[in-house]
Amino acid sequence: MSGDALIVQEVATRDGFQIEPVFVETAEKIRLIDALAEAGFSRIEVSSFVSPKAVPALADAAEVFAGIRRRPGTVYVALVPNPKGAERALAAQVDEINLVASVSETHNRANMGMSPADSIAGFARIMDSVRGASLSTNATVATAFGCPFEGDQSADKVLAQVERYLSLGVDGVTLADTTGMANPRQVARLVARVLALVGPGRLTLHFHNTRGLGLANVLAAYDAGARRFDAALGGLGGCPFAPGATGNICTEDLVSMAHEMGVPTGLDLPALIGLSRDLPRLVGHEVPGQVAKAGRPCDLHPAPAKAA
């Protein structure tokens, strides 16, 4: 796997915190985002400008954006569900907005309360509202590798949604394995087809580790030509509208794997491990990441004393 750099977009403070029952204080979110930027992230999904009634854990999105130190070279991203959210994102001076619609009709109605076609029509209005602003736009195809209600989604259906996004003028596209249903061969096939439309600089992969295949799917996508991946510190996260969808792939586990295989990430792994080990204090429970518990492979231990 050695070769081109693997770019990690950190999503813990949005995708991770959004389903936590304990509200993480605004000052703690700001502290964590600033520390993540210092650890070398070029992209951080900070929060979401969604209704506070729908996602109370992210009700402080504007305050978080106002409080962070903007590190040069880091893109600060917000998820935006509708034109009102886009207006709030513009006021907060975000660097990039991320729009999300499921390719699955059933999941999109559960998640967004409307059909995918209606969601994308709303995206057109959002794109009109931000045109001329100094921000970039990304659009996510949720349930791209399978829907918990409908099952498999055809590759042709996914590509058709990608093409609709591109027709709106978005700068980038994300394929999301919203409930961790993907497998490596499926990933390799779909990524190869989507890369023919957008190229590696405009494609992000968003994997969940629900069934333990998250990092295997990263390897398959990387070998197929993808270079940018979402991940969450500690393996936090999940979709509140998808039964059984556990956390995202774990940032420090992904970075450790990449470094062991000779793939640069530009990230400070010891710093990430330290931040991950502090997460239980913030969220009130243990987190699923493994490297923060076991240490890096190079963290050796003294030999045991000989038995008497």
TrEMBL record:
Keywords: Lyase, Metal-binding. InterPro entries: Aldolase_TIM (IPR013785), HMGL (IPR043594), PYR_CT (IPR000891). Residues 6-273 form the Pyruvate carboxyltransferase domain. GO terms for molecular function: lyase activity. It holds the Pfam family HMGL-like. Belongs to the HMG-CoA lyase family. NCBIfam families: PRK05692.1. This is Hydroxymethylglutaryl-CoA lyase. It comes from Methylobacterium oryzae.
